[in-house]
């Protein structure tokens, strides 16, 4: 499936709504994310701090390596399985960049609000 195919369904990565719940604690989990595709929502994406650099080398504005984990479930053996999957790797990379951009915007707005008070 390509971006052209997504457009046939009225979906465009830039128009996918991203709702971030930023977590302000010292752990590696930075945010819980929900995506609004218009006719449906997918919740449960996680943004975590990573000590590794991956294929896409996603970094926050402060240079922290970030890892986006799609919603998943844990089987009886303790292995996690994703419940959201995009077979087109280029499209998944584009979506991850969109998520990180919205995460950064949310963090900036939080800081502006905090210092405005």
From TrEMBL:
SUPFAM superfamilies: SpoVG-like. InterPro entries: SpoVG_sf. One of its GO terms (biological process) is sporulation resulting in formation of a cellular spore. This is Uncharacterized protein. It comes from Candidatus Magasanikbacteria bacterium RIFOXYD2_FULL_41_14.
